[in-house]
Write a structure and sequence with these properties.
single chain; 126 residues; mainly alpha; 8 helices
Length: 126
């Protein structure tokens, strides 16, 4: 009988996935930033930002770019952290991205219940 070998820890696997798939990293970042204003999701969002920083240069490099201590950045990107705009921008810079503002999208419930346009209904009937 073979002994099961322990796999790599989830955190290390997550970092590898983020590092190897740029589109995944961008999607994770978008979700994390959108969730920061929800108190129930904020801790997970900050941990995702931390994982992204670790995947692309490490927290030490990000802290150096931002001009903050590594300890301060670790604290900011902890589940109970409260990062400054400077810390968020530093993480984005380390990823080669920038912060931008876009209008909020309508909720999916509103979009799902909206009636199709007359032309669309006519095409569907044909």
């Amino acid at each position: 009988m073979k002994k099961n070998r322990p796999g790599i820890p989830y955190h290390e696997w997550e970092i590898e996935q983020i590092r190897s798939d740029r589109e995944l990293a961008i999607e994770c970042l978008q979700v994390a930033l959108e969730s920061l204003d929800n108190p129930e999701e904020r801790g997970g969002s900050l941990l995702m930002l931390r994982a992204l920083a670790e995947a692309y240069g490490g927290l030490g490099a990000v802290a150096a770019k931002a001009g903050v201590s590594r300890k301060s950045l670790y604290r900011s990107l902890s589940p109970k952290g409260n990062p400054t705009l400077k810390a968020l921008i530093a993480v984005l810079n380390a990823l080669g991205l920038s912060l931008s503002v876009v209008p909020k999208q309508q909720s999916t419930k509103k979009r799902a219940t909206r009636k199709p346009a007359k032309a669309t209904r006519a095409r569907a009937a044909a």
